[in-house]
Amino acid sequence: MTRPPIFIGGAGRSGTTLLRVMLDSHPAIACGPELKILPAILRQWVDMRTSYAPPLAQWRIGPAETDRLYRQLVEGLLEPYRVAAGKPRVAEKTPGNVLFFRQFHALFPDSPLVHVIRDGRDVVTSLLSMDWTDPATGQAPPYTRDARRAAEYWVSCVRGGRSALDMPGLSERYIEVRYEELARDPETTLRTLLVAVGEEWNPAVLEFHRKPHDLSDESSADAVQDPLNTAAIGRWQEDLKPGQLALVQSVAGDLLAELGYLRD
Questions:
Q1: Which of 65, 196, 249, 250 is 20 to 30 A from 31, alpha carbon to alpha carbon?
Q2: Mean pLDDT (whole number) for 221-236
Q3: Of 76-80, 142-146, 242-246, 254-258, where does mean pLDDT reach its minimum?
Q4: Distance between CA atoms of 264 and 257, rounded to whole angstroms?
Q5: Which of 45, 47, 50, 52 lies closest to 68 in space, CA to CA?
Q6: Has residue 243 got a pLDDT over 80?
Q7: How many C-beta atoms surround the C-beta of residue 75 within 10 A?
Q8: pLDDT tier at 219, thresholds 50, 70, 90
Q9: Burial of 12 (0-12, 13-18, 19+ CB in 10 A)
């Protein structure tokens, strides 16, 4: 792996799939379907550096060696897709990555960490329309069935990702992309992003819908095969019931205001 990987996250239904197919259209970046497993690997890495550090030390495995092993594991998972794509750099998008930016930075200090943010009211609206099943429980995730839980999920993801702004070193690798800006002015938004991740501008990223992508079972697969549009911006105004909107505002109002969404 010659270039540091790019890690992308954000609350589900925030536009992370759209960004990933755009980046996957760049001739220098391979960004495949959600690997999904990286948050679990990073969670285990934390355990190895804390709870399991004493027995590992008895086996002559210290913190530096633990870090090296987990770095190799992540690189080993990402590398085959990059090689198959024939591109010099890889990016991985899983929404849950957003809650592990600190851990990603510890293992990959040079990697850009991209946080896709969307109006929480639209995120809740979209989540409530999802027919997802949690593989661990066989049940629908609570945040797809209840407006309050959906709002709490959005707040936790956005706050978790934005906590990077308070961490020296990490804040320099942290990049925010607003879904609304990406949809309304994709060229300006992507030019800024590509500069931030250290890649040259290429207009191919705007032709994402004309290129084949391995979309697997991603819930936005159909949408990202069409030309970019702004139809999904502000859909909460029609689709959220007054009671649901009140719940969202009670949970997420402060963060919505902080991000400037309540000015609309």
A1: 65
A2: 81
A3: 142-146
A4: 10
A5: 45
A6: yes
A7: 15
A8: low
A9: buried
* Sheet strands (E) in the chain: 6-9, 29-31, 89-93, 113-117, 174-178
Which tokens in the block code for residue 91? 């990016």
CA distances from 154 to 162, 214, 237 (A): 12, 27, 18
- Answer whether 0.85 is exceeded by the pTM: yes
DSSP tag of 31: E
What are 250's two structure tokens?
């009670």
Three-state secondary-structure class, residue 121: helix
Cβ proximity of 91 and 37 under 8 Å: no
Residues in the chain: 264
Given the structure tokens 């906590």, which residue do they identify? 163
pLDDT over 90, % of the chain = 85
- DSSP H helical segments within 109-146, as ranges? 120-127
- Please say if the pLDDT value at position 176 is more than 90: yes
